[in-house]
Write a structure and sequence with these properties.
- The radius of gyration is 28 Å and the shape is flat.
- α5 packs antiparallel against α6.
- With 230 residues, the protein is mainly α.
- The protein is 60% helix and 11% strand.
Length: 230
């Protein structure tokens, strides 16, 4: 923790007007995923120098188990959303140790439903342009990987991974393809506008006339002319 901050601080070090070199530590936070009542709200490190001077280095702690998916969305901590599945590990581990088959089956259903819920929430974030296509894909891949981990270590349901993979693929492929087509259409429209405006300008027509005939906003006409001719 301190080593990381110190390394990053060295990268950003500079000298002030007083010729004193300053290290700027990045703001840090440590995340604990599994519930543990002994974990405090911050981690503290007392740094003692050779002359016995002391410096307290403190980093905030995020207790992941206190957050649900809605909390993470509200705080825009989108990459952490798939890890909601990891919250099931402790219960699954306990059920496996007790050889509680019924509980494991119950948690398998919970895992499947939660995976679908998180995938749909990721899709909604993508639709709202809160995340990019690459982020959407990474989140769905994380959901698949976590289901695989839980299934192969605790659940052992031969259909679980297949069902989740089919579900996530059905969400990702059509949506990303659709947005790609839409962006391609937008680029095509933009290219056509540029060609039309420049051709009409070459025929001696002024900005207002071009706008009137093409129905392209005059501001956009001027923007094209300025960008391509000036």
């Amino acid at each position: 923790m301190f080593e990381y901050g110190f390394r990053k601080g060295k990268e950003n070090a500079d000298y002030g007007g007083d010729n004193i070199k300053r290290l700027y530590f990045p703001k840090q936070k440590v995340i604990f995923f599994e519930e543990n009542k002994n974990i405090e709200d911050s981690l503290k490190l007392m740094i003692v120098f050779g002359d016995k001077k002391e410096f307290l280095y403190e980093v905030d702690v995020m207790k992941y188990w206190e957050y649900n998916d809605k909390d993470l969305i509200e705080k825009k901590m989108y990459p952490l959303i798939p890890l909601q599945l990891f919250n099931l590990r402790k219960k699954l581990n306990y059920a496996k140790k007790k050889n509680d088959i019924n509980k494991i089956k119950e948690l398998s259903i919970v895992a499947r439903n939660l995976a679908e819920k998180l995938a749909i929430e990721s899709k909604e974030l993508f639709d709202q342009d809160e995340i990019l296509g690459e982020d959407f894909h990474s989140m769905l891949l994380a959901i698949q990987n976590l289901i695989e981990y839980l299934n192969r270590n605790y659940i052992d349901d031969e259909n679980l991974e297949k069902e989740v993979n089919i579900m996530t693929k059905s969400l990702y492929d059509p949506e990303v393809e659709k947005k790609g087509i839409e962006k391609g259409i937008e680029k095509g429209i933009e290219k056509n506008q540029v060609e039309i405006v420049l051709n009409m300008l070459g025929e001696g027509l002024d900005e207002a006339t071009i706008s009137r005939f093409t129905k392209i906003d005059i501001g956009r006409v001027r923007e094209i002319i300025k960008k391509h001719l000036n």
